[in-house]
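Sample entry copied in:
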Amino acid sequence: MKQRTIANSVEIVGIGLHKGVPVKMKLEPLDSDMGIVFYREDEGVTIPLKIDNVVDTKMATVIGKDGIVISTIEHLLSAVYAYGIDNLRVIIDNDEIPVLDGSSSGYCMLIEEAGIKELSASKKAIKIKKDVEVTTEDGKRVALKPSNHIIYDFSIDFDHPVIGEQDFRFDYSIEEYKENISRARTFGFLHEVQYLRSQGLAQGGSLENAIVLDQSKVLNPEGLRYNDEFVRHKILDAIGDMALLGYTLVGEYDAHAGSHYLNHLLTKKVYESEENYEIIDLEEANEEAQVFEMAYSKVQA
């Protein structure tokens, strides 16, 4: 099991969700042990993907350095993480990653267009050894639990006739991610969108890149891609947020009504004690390596 990067550089131009301005993004390969690195070419600032560089989690996961930020990174990171890419340079010319259609499926296609390259160094992963949990007084919860597999289990409960209670359990493989998670779009309520726009946010949001609901129905004329698209998108976001751990996760993520903020607190809490985790070498850890080999081989078959 070797570290991965992309085989070739690829570019895309899209709209930022909040500012609504065009953003040019380029993905470039990096060598072993360089990690995921963002670069604001308009500012000349490099921002490594690290927990300490997270500066905001209210509407999206935002990283920053020296007052320069890059927002809405979770959808891109979700696809990068799902494809097992360890080393990558992300270059953009504005402060937001393009939203595309509100899901990560466009990023999956971009990664497959670039191709995946195995590097010489052994792949490392973070294996959860003890239950780590973050809860709130109103019943929200995010947790990581020991497992020899990679599982995301999420439940939500919205007081809305289209959403209601939903739960989804995702047993990781690239093919399952592409089919069941990557196409799930971000969602919001019409009154929230109107408020955000009054605050200068969500300027790029539309029915082309988000599910929008009024008090009783989905406003998108094409409807939903899955009956439970809402909870599937929550898993998409959680996978992207777990990329902040810096290594591929071996363990079970379990959440009820989780958020970017709670996910950030969870990744920080994991690293508070070495009793919570261990960094493993997948060439040495046979059982975990077999999990990854099976997950990767499905998309190549």
